[in-house]
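Q: My collaborator sent me two sequences in one message, no labels, and asked for predicted structures for both. Can we handle them in order? The first one she listed is below.
A: Yes, handling them in the order given. First sequence, followed by its structure tokens:
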Amino acid sequence: MKNKLITLMLFTAVAFSLPAAYTQKEASPSEQAGNGSVAMQPAGNFSEKITVILPEIEMDNIGFYEAETRKFEQLTGIQVERIYGSWDDIAEFIMLDLEKNGGSYDVIEFDNAWIARFHQNDWLEPLDRYVTEDIKNGMLPGLIDKFSIDGKLYGITWNNDTRFFMYNQNLLTKAGYDAPPQTWGELAEMSKKIINDGIAPYGYSDSYIQQQSGSNQITFLVYSFGGRLFDNGKPVMAKDPKTKAAFEFLNQAINVDKICDPSALISDYQSVSNMFCMGQTAFVLQAWAGIYEMANNKEFSIITGQVAVGDASIHAAGEVPIVMTLPEAMAIPKTSAHKDAAWKYIEYMSSIEVDKRRCTAIGSLPLWSSLFTDPDLLALYPYWEKFGYQSVYAVGLPDLLWYDEYSEILMRETHKMLNGEITVDECLQAIQSQCEALAASKP
């Protein structure tokens, strides 16, 4: 969930002066595959109009998306009306329109938490007739998989919000380690050494607050142990031994070994970042990409030059080193009267050429796998190569119609466990029983 802003801004098409480099359009993957060409049209001579509604991205303080939208207009002759604002405001506008079958928008925000609901209500146009194999094979697999359901693709990512394992190399060196941990066991061992030697107060902190970020982090923990929370939408957390192992590790880390900062129970992501940047912790389990830059900015950090990115995320021995991805996609409502034009906009804005320009201009993460090893981008962001290693194992949150209610149950019962009110087994059974009742109450 994004922070709520005050205003919603509406921008209609405006004249935009293009540099010479954009006076001709290079054929896109679908055009090369014979899906039709896009004709150049002079500014103001529009053949069609689409309405696009997407949230603001915090990193875009230079108007990159607005500028590229106007370039798209010049290249295609398709007029674009952009509506953008806070995530909460945009979500409200979209939901109201879809629920009343309004047809106000042609390209909409499609958040990773909406997949089950949108699919059940048959609100979106499948994109398979547009999407080429180049797109499916070229974009990060986790981003394609996250917005696919029942064998069909419904969204193309525009905001790659994948998380990564980072650590403070200086603190590890002081503790006598020349390489970061890879498993939870190694992380616990190193954390104890760092604490016992007085190098830092805690091995790590995390966000286990009773909010969305808390359920995100519990999901990562369970998946990293190879655990399962659901099986085809049915709760199985109380029956899965690997899920139990994850909860036992969490309880041990906070209440027994004290390698995790106990204030994690009330910490949000910013608090986790602040502790790391102040040298209070050695590890960030699932850092958003911007933490690297923040930790190397003397205005916000005292650990500049000490931050490193792991080759792999923390995981239980023998399990896959998953990372969480919480992306946002562009989608086409079934009510759109301009589906082909809407796809051309999505295709252009997510193309590898625009993706590279966006990465260069504002430093947001690539959508295309090859850009993690692009020489030009690595010259700007050398640590992205390791982001690429970790991104291969990106997975998303469970697809549930009642995800918000489940998230509340998960964190409420987890807090009871961490506060010593119930055991691990009682916690998992309580979560499962309440989820089973919730599922039975839904249509």
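Q: And the one she listed second?
A: Here it is, processed independently of the first:
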Amino acid sequence: MDLQRILKTLSQNEKVELVQLLQQDLKAPNIELIRSAINKDQLILCPHCNSNDIYGHGIYKGRKRYKCKFCKKTFNDFTGTAISGIKKTHKFQQYISLVVESVSIRKASDQIGVNMKTIFDWRHKLLSSLAVLNGQAFSGIVECDDKQLDINNKGDRNLDRDPYKRPSDRETKRGVSNDKVSIIVATDRKGSMTMQLAKIGRIDTESIEKAIGELISQENILCSDSHPSIIAWAKKKQLEHHTFVASKHHIKDKCYHVQHVNSIDNRYERWVKRFYGVSTKYLSQYLNWFVFLEKVKKSTTQTLDLAKNVAIDISTIRNYRLINDRYENLFIPHSS
């Protein structure tokens, strides 16, 4: 095939379009190859019951199938992952690179030629695969903070009030109230971090324990503001705890401070502005997204890093289906 002769027949606009298509193809990771490589190095587990007692069960539509001896269910390499049930796999793989670039749903729809509703579905399946990265055990000094965001009902078609035409139409109480949702943010000095939806209204010891209790041990040193619930929780966990009042001092003994966690708060606020408001229902998904981007911001293979996570996490579809339940549970009062 004489490619040079073919290129000479193209108009300038057609050449530009060809370059854009080639760039998209080069950026798109091959999920099939990634999953095959992972299977060679790791034990295959049943996505239904996590048993490793499985055996080959033929091939269906070009993909090898397996059967679990424990639960008797069949599955393939992608069952339970974000790519499970995706028909336009080539387009989906292109979309992975756009997630790394934090491209909006509308722009992604225009770039790869897929309906916006489909892109929305793909986005939240991908973000569900990142939940496992949002919360890993901390080491050394841990900085902790809580932040409050207005409850956002964006996209809700069953409101018991008229929708707001602009943010200024909303009337909320100053400070912490049940009109806001609390987020726990924590990080250590090695870059491990988490951002977890805690509860509606003011945090308490129970919500703090649920958000970060498993990530912190008595070997850690906690730094935070002087929130009474954080102080009570740290005392209950028997942690060495240093508190700070922003208006008085910022650092103790040249090493104890909350500057890293405050910086994370600021970066998150700048990043999330591009989405023009995030529904509280999907807020935990966006926290997963931001934590992932923070973890890979120095990586030269960010798209590949995301693709590997998409290919390996067999709990993705389970997490995706629980989005609505987790949102409704936020509004159920719990005893503290």
